[in-house]
Amino acid sequence: MTIVTTDLGHTLLQRLDEAAQHSEPGPGVTRLFCSEQHRGVCDVISGWMRRAGLTPELDASGNLVGRCARAKAGEKTLIMGSHQDTVVEGGKYDGMLGVALPLLALEALQEAGVTLPYGVEVVAFGDEEGTRFQSTLIGSRALAGTFDASSLEAKDADGISLAKALQDFGGEPENIPALARQPDSVLGFVEVHIEQGPVLERRDHALGIVTALTGIERHRLTVSGKAGHAGTTPMPGRRDALVGAAEMILEADSVLNATEDFVGVVGKLDVRPNAVNVIPSEVTFTLELRSPRAEVRAQGRDAILAACRRLAAARELEVSIEQTYSAEAVDCAPWLIEALGDACRASGQPAEPLFSGAGHDGLAMCDLTDIGMLFVRCRDGLSHHPGEAINAADGEAATRALMQFLADLPSRVEISS
């Protein structure tokens, strides 16, 4: 396949810069689900979709969906896309790269006179980060048919429910179940995303093929001791909840560092009474654990929690442990791993495999269809940060690899309805 379109990388970066303008004031990009910034970026993406030959439509769950004529006619369809929402003060590439890049690839194929003999759908998922309502993967679960209607009751910091926000945005919460795609109508789901880690940079590779999306679990631990006057209570015998929690956090860090394919973080900590001269009586902290291997995560979790109980007993503290979230690891489909790898190599790029340490919309879409994922190198492995960055050459490489994949897809799957 010879594509004469040039300077795709710089065009891609310009479009991502344009999308990044739709952000709350402050460092980086802050674009929350069903916000005015979300509304503004949908207008930008709609323009990209039309240039790629797709018809844009806001669906009932807040996704912006672009479909080609074949997809609208009900032919078997490849779904591509990623999320448009961000964390607070995030970067301009996390999520949005996977919206802008496939649209640019489709536009370039169209300009080159390449007609794809199957349906194509590109989705800018409304909510993946869960920043506003703490209820993640709303849009992808809607398409996969696994949407939980109880999540509509979730409220943001201002007390606005998800259902109300969707209604005000133009969505139709009551019609979300009707968005579920039929598995036999979908060829697969492919997402392009920045790596959000340092592996590709260390390999000096622009692209990587994802083999699996990591399993994730979250826990809330509450350590209870006894408050007292910081100046008059002797050090021996103190039941200091913060000291106990600190020991537990250090033990978690030790287990994580000693275990391959296992990462985690204590990202939030609340201290009571949080006074300068009072011994802390209670500490609540979060513990998030990730691994693509369920057995590694289970063994590591058991070791960490057993240590927390042991450390609590040694200081005459109490510890309660509540699991707040769990999602098992998801394997990418072998045929999509092979197809994306072949497309990379055909376009002159190495394509070594690696797993994703982050969750993505594929965690939901796998309930509908086979999933595949292409990673793009990001500077310093940085993500969820204003300094998030890719370069034009890597953007060009990823765009051309996806174009190759799209052109070659009919040789790999049955596309007739």
From TrEMBL:
Keywords, comma-separated and alphabetical: Hydrolase, Manganese, Metal-binding, Zinc
GO molecular function: hydrolase activity, acting on carbon-nitrogen (but not peptide) bonds, in linear amidines; metal ion binding
Binding positions for Zn(2+) 2 per the UniProt entry: 94, 129, 384
Summary of subunit composition and partner proteins: Homodimer.
Protein name: Allantoate amidohydrolase
Homology family: Belongs to the peptidase M20 family.
Presence of the UniProt keyword Metal-binding in the record: yes
Binding residue positions for allantoate: 218, 277, 290
Cofactor: Zn(2+); Mn(2+)
Free-text cofactor note: Binds 2 Zn(2+) ions per subunit.
Domain Peptidase M20 dimerisation: 214-313
NCBIfam families membership: hydantase, PRK09290.2-5
Binding site for Zn(2+) 1: 83, 94, 193
Gene3D superfamilies in the record: 3.30.70.360, Zn peptidases
Organism: Halomonas binhaiensis
Cytoplasm keyword on record: no
InterPro entries found in the cross-reference section: Amidase_Cbmase (IPR010158), Bact_exopeptidase_dim_dom (IPR036264), Peptidase_M20 (IPR002933), Peptidase_M20_dimer (IPR011650)
Pfam families, sorted: M20_dimer, Peptidase_M20
Domain of life: Bacteria
